[in-house]
Amino acid sequence: MIFLDLTTIIAQEVVLSSLMAIEGMVTLLIEFFEAFGRIEFPFESNYVLSIIYVSLYVSLIAVFLSTIFSIPVAMIVGFKNFPGKQFVVSAINTGMGFPSVAVGLFVLFLVSSQGPLGMFDLVFTKEAMIMSQFVLASPVITGISLSSVMSIRREIRDAAFAMGGTKLDRALLIIKEARYGIITAIVAGLGRAISEVGSVLIVGGNIASYDGTSITRTLTTAIQLEARQGKFETAMILGVILISIVLFINWIMIRLGHNRISGQWGDGF
What we know:
With 269 residues, the protein is mostly helical. Helix content is 77%, strand content 0%.
């Protein structure tokens, strides 16, 4: 319970920091289009910003939890020999293509009043959306991380063992060597989560309050709703915002990797 509370606090801080960077861009877009009379945003900027908040909150928590789960699984599957290993690898690869609607139905059953988690009253909540995105993102992060981990040369692992390193030391060394592949896995998992429509629509309900503040409405479900209502300009602007967020996060990851490489070269010369 303490871990979940800490995760929520961290995710909230990250989401709020991201919103501060994105809010200016969104406000400029809204003012630009309204100034030229081309588009009227429903409920003004509050509508857009609350949707961005829910999208980032749900997706970042889901990917954070998926990363904590997936990397140890990739390490174990990659370096342990056990009966049924090939089946597990096949299951992971198959999971990367899970139909999102089927995942949404499965999670909805779990949290419904007839399901095993019915006592927690999670139907049409952000928590149910996080569960759905966790199921979708975990195979992606696990599969790509597994490929990256297995590509590490055996000599590197043997060197850590020969130097008296513990299992934790060897695991950290492998993660360090495979970090760029793991970063790619996390970015791919985030892309899978934040672009999701079907499952979050089923388990979240695409709900907004009377004043337009999003409760479980995300950017993708809002785009779907606006397009169905014939508000194509609004849907396209929300699509631009979604793409911008993904590009912004990818840019951060690329810069992070670039800075690490630069630091290594700087230490070497």
